[in-house]
Amino acid sequence: MGGDFAGTELSPSAVHALIEINAAPGISARHLGELLRLEKSSISRLLRKLVLSGDVLERADKDDSRMKSLFLSRAGKRRVAAIDSFADTQVSTALKRLGSGKDRTVVEGLRLYAAALAAEAVPSVLPKRKMVRGYRPGIIARITQMHALYYARSSGFGQRFESVVAAGLADFCGRLDDPRNALWTVVQENDIVGSVAIDGEDLGANIAHLRWFIVDDSARGSGAGRKLLSAALAFADEQGFAETHLWTFDGLSVARHLYEAHGFVCVEEHPGNQWGREVLEQRFVRPRVR
């Protein structure tokens, strides 16, 4: 933490001090020391340097001449503006390097970390998520996007895969009026972050087809996937389907563990290239729970 910081020649403590004085003009040295968690001697040395550099002004308190109130000079205000600009550029550049949805993961992590530092209850800062059944505007595009981005990154799938997902999902949404078909999404702050569907028509023979099961990066590890899968399988059992089938491919170990935990068994494997490159396709089957 030593040396230059935030595009300045200042130390982190000095940068922090300028930011706090800018936010609370007239703050006392004592209060500033408490915010920075610095001893009296350390805050005195820090302020002396900032006063000598021309960034900070000290004024005697009108009620107690022994107390000093701290203000930024014009130079200090320009310095803080430059620090803010440096920080904005640094953060925005870093966030642009992240994949879709990962910026929300960063925000969520910062919320949790801030809550832990403040000894607050973590549940109070968790984003609210709700599971919604049925069509909603933008659902085809958003579910397709989650699939396209995730499988491009993890499996190298491209345009062919995205087109197949979009076409199949669009066709399915046109069949949602059939009571054997259902679609669920997890919504967080008006954004879809997870989905799953039961297609009760396409396989025939009283078989439910579990399709479009995915959870966005921002909601992974939250339990959203488990809730979606449980809702879909409960629906399949209630509708009286003899079995629920799903197709996936080898290498998705986390998903496979979740499927097997819900009673699925892999019954078939064979090479296939319907997604644009060859993978070991797998069919999982789960009998109805009576």
Explain the overall architecture.
A hairpin with a 7-residue loop joins strand 6 (191-199) and strand 7 (207-215). This protein has 9 helices and 10 strands. The radius of gyration is 28 Å and the shape is elongated. Helix 1 (12-23) crosses helix 4, helix 2 crosses helix 3 (40-52) and helix 6 runs antiparallel to helix 7 (159-173). The chain has helices spanning 12-23, 29-36, 40-52, 74-96, 102-117, 139-155, 159-173, 224-238, 253-261, and strands at 27-28, 56-60, 68-72, 129-133, 182-188, 191-199, 207-215, 243-249, 265-272, 279-287. The relative contact order is 0.08. The chain has a 7-stranded mixed sheet with strand order 4-5-6-7-8-10-9, with helices on both faces. The chain has a 3-stranded antiparallel sheet with strand order 1-3-2. The chain has 3 domains: 12-96, Arc Repressor Mutant, subunit A; 98-127; 128-287, 3-Layer(aba) Sandwich (Aminopeptidase), CATH 3.40.630. With 290 residues, the chain is α+β, with helices and mostly antiparallel strands.
Itemize the secondary structure elements and their pairings.
Elements: H1 12-23, E1 27-28, H2 29-36, H3 40-52, E2 56-60, E3 68-72, H4 74-96, H5 102-117, E4 129-133, H6 139-155, H7 159-173, E5 182-188, E6 191-199, E7 207-215, H8 224-238, E8 243-249, H9 253-261, E9 265-272, E10 279-287
Parallel strand pairs: 7-8
Antiparallel strand pairs: 1-3, 2-3, 4-5, 5-6, 6-7, 8-10, 9-10
Helix pairs in contact: 1-4, 2-3, 6-7
